[in-house]
Amino acid sequence: MTNHDSFDLEAQIRSWNNCLRSRGNFSEADLGELENHLRDEVEDLVGAGLALDEAFLISVKRLGNTDSLSQEYSKINTENLWRQLLQDRDPGARARTRREIGLVILFALLAGTLAKIPGLFGRGLFEPLYQLFYLKNLSLFVLPLLAGYFFLKRNPGRKRIVSVYGVFLLAALLINLYPSRDPKATEFLTGIHLPIFLWLLTGLAYAGAAWRSAARRMDFIRFTGEAFIYAVLIGCGVMVLVGFTQMIFGAIKVDLSRFTQEYLVVYGVFAVPFIAVYLVEAKKSIIENFAPILAKIFSPLFFATMTSFLVVMLIQGKSPFVDRNYLIAFDLMLALVLGLVLYIVSSRDIHEAPGLFDYLNLALIVVALIIDAIALSAIVFRLSSYGISPNKLAALGENIILFVNLTGLAVFYLRYFMKRCHFSAMEKWQTGYLRYYLAWTAVVAFLFPILFGFS
Hints:
Layout: H1 9-23, H2 28-47, H3 52-67, H4 69-86, H5 91-116, H6 131-154, H7 158-177, H8 185-207, H9 214-250, H10 257-283, H11 291-316, H12 324-346, H13 356-386, H14 390-417, H15 423-451
C-alpha cells in the first residue's frame, strides 16, 4: 500500500472511535486512551517507512486483536478494506504498483539469466559435475537482486547500500576463488551456510533505516516465514505449469522437454522468490494473512510427530543419531521447527493473553530441546570416537546455537506465563540472537575452507 492523497487519517480515526463508542462498553477515558495508543502505533509505523493508510490499517488490527476491536471495525469498513485491496483509483498509486511489478519481472529475468551465464562457459546448470558450483552460487544469483528491490523501496542511504553490496561482492569472490579439493566437505558446507548468511544480510536491506529496531527485525522474521510459505505454494504452481505445458504439447507430438528444462524451469524457479516477496510486501498489511493459520495447523502436527518419534525411540532403545546422514537430517528438522516456532511468535499480537497455541509452542520447544540434546550427545560421541571433521564441527556449532536459542525461548515463555516479563521481551531477545546465526554461518562458509585446507 502507498500513501493516497485521498486518505484522511483524522476522519478514519473518528469513524473508528464512533464504532467503539456505539458498542457501549467503553468510557470516554477508555476511548481517549485507545486513541492515543492508535496514534502512537501509526506514528511508529510511519517512522519505520510505511505509508499513512498502511500504518493505520496495521495499527487498527494490532489493537483489535486484544479485545476484538478490529473485528467490529472491519464489519463496518469491510467494503473500504476490499476496495483498497482489489482496486486503487489513485493514478499515482497505480503507477507505483506498475513500477513495482515491472521491477519484480525485471529482477526475476535477471536472476534466471545470471544462472544461465555459466552455461555459456561449459558449466551446465543440470550437469552433475557442476552441482557444487551452483549450490554455492544460487543464492548469489537471487539475493543481491532482492536486496536491490528492498533498497529501491526503503531508500536507506548510500552508505548502507555500499556496505551490503560490498559484503555480497566479497562473498562471491571468496567462495569462487577458494580451491576445490576432495572430498569437498567444506565446499558443500559453504553451499549450505552461505544462503542463510546472505539472507540475514538481505534483512538489513529489508529493515532499511530502522535495522536497529527489534520490532523491525521481528518483522523480518515474520516476513521470512510468509515469503517461504508463499514461495512453496508458487513453486508448486510452477511445477504444475511445467507438467501441463509438456503434456498438452506432447499430445500433438511436439517435444518441449529441452525448452521447459532450460528456460521454463530455470526462469520459473528464479521468479518464485521475487513473486513471493512482492505478494508479502503488497498484501500483508491489508488483510489477515493465511500464513499464520497454516503455521498453527502444522505446529500441533510437528509436535505429535516429534513426540511419537521420541516415544518409539525410547521403547525400541535405538538412536538414529549414530548415522551421520540421520544426524544432518535431524539438524535440518530442528532448524525447520525453530523457524515454525519463531514465525508463530512473530505473528502473535504481543498484547494478547496467553492462549492454547502459546502453551503448544512451549511444548514444541521442549520436545525439540530433548531431541537436540540427544543429537548433541551423539555429535560429541562421534567427535571423541572418530576425531574432528568439518561436518561434525559445523553440526556441533549449529546444535549448540539451536540449543541455546530453544532454551532461551523456553525460559522466556515460562517467565511470560508467570507474568514476570512482557511478551515483547522475548521478541527483543530473539531478534538480538540472530547475530549468532549470522556469525556462525559466516565462519562455516568462509573460514572452514581455510581451516581444513579447502578439503
